[in-house]
Design goal:
CATH class: Alpha Beta
Protein name: Protein-L-isoaspartate O-methyltransferase
CATH superfamily: Vaccinia Virus protein VP39
Bound molecules: S-adenosyl-L-homocysteine
Structural class: alpha/beta
Number of helices: 7
Family: Belongs to the methyltransferase superfamily. L-isoaspartyl/D-aspartyl protein methyltransferase family.
Strand content: 25-35%
Helix content: 25-40%
Largest sheet: 7 strands, mixed
Enzyme class: transferase
Number of strands: 9
Number of domains: 1
CATH topology: Rossmann fold
GO molecular function: protein-L-isoaspartate (D-aspartate) O-methyltransferase activity
Keywords: Cytoplasm, Methyltransferase, S-adenosyl-L-methionine, Transferase
Order of helices and strands: HHHEEHEHEHEEHEEE
Length: 220
């Protein structure tokens, strides 16, 4: 079995072992196909290429990480992506989650706060032929107003509260998937949905530990 197939097997196993939390015993076939299609070794630092297909997060510089493959797959599945969708990602990092989404939907908009990471991800995604991903260096708490509304929004850093702009930029029926800090300081991946009347509901899915969402320009 090659290492990519082994990674998919490990994702499927972790999906089964977390079903008590997520209610999902399996992920959409399309999500696993997208995870198979993206060359993860292109997104990790050269010295970590050997570990690219292990089901673990890895450092990508600037104190940031590329998320664990299982978490990328789960968050992608929670977005319920459709081929015609336009998706916003907050926290481009190395661009891996954006590439997985780009395999599944029409357009991906991704915002990264750290210029060095955002620019490198933009170059990488272009080089790998992901022409349907746009990367912007900015504060993702503000979303990407000019490109809104989005069918789905995924935040890949832990938020203390749901950023208001992101709810505003979500299309009716759209899904916002984010790690959110709870009252006890632990984090859960949550799915926030907005119905056609604009009413919000949120559902906790799984306890996680993401690096915090930063608030550039805000002291403290
Ligand atoms: N999705 C990434 C994971 C990145 S880790 C991947 O597939 O590799 C989280 C990222 O969120 C980091 O790159 C961090 O710099 C970025 N980030 C944190 N706060 C942010 C903010 N307010 N706006 C945009 N990006 C932010």
């Amino acid at each position: 079995m090659d290492r990519k197939q082994r990674m998919i097997g490990e994702i499927e196993e972790e999906v089964r072992s977390t079903v008590g939390y997520t209610g999902r015993a399996r992920l959409r076939t399309g999500v696993l196909e997208a995870m198979t299609a993206v060359p993860r070794e292109e997104f990790v630092p050269p010295n970590l290429r050997e570990q690219a297909y292990e089901n673990v997060p890895l450092p990508i510089g600037q104190g940031q990480t590329i998320s664990q493959p299982f978490i990328v797959a789960l968050m992608t599945d929670l977005l319920e992506p459709e081929p015609g969708h336009r998706i916003l990602e907050v926290g481009t990092g190395c661009g891996y989650q954006a590439a997985v989404l780009a395999e599944l939907v029409q357009e991906v908009y991704s915002v990264e706060a750290i210029p060095g990471l955002g620019e490198a991800a933009r170059e990488r995604l272009k080089r790998l032929g992901y022409g349907n991903v746009s990367v912007r260096v900015a504060d993702g708490n503000r979303g990407w107003p000019e490109a809104a509304p989005f069918d789905g929004i995924v935040v890949t850093a832990g938020a203390r509260e749901v950023p208001v702009a992101l709810v505003e930029q979500l299309a009716p029926g759209g899904r916002l998937v984010l790690p959110l800090e709870g009252p006890d300081a632990g984090q859960d991946i949550q799915v926030v949905t907005k119905d056609s009347e604009g009413a919000r509901t949120s559902q906790p899915i799984l306890p996680v530990a993401f690096v915090p969402l930063i608030h550039p320009g805000v002291p403290g």
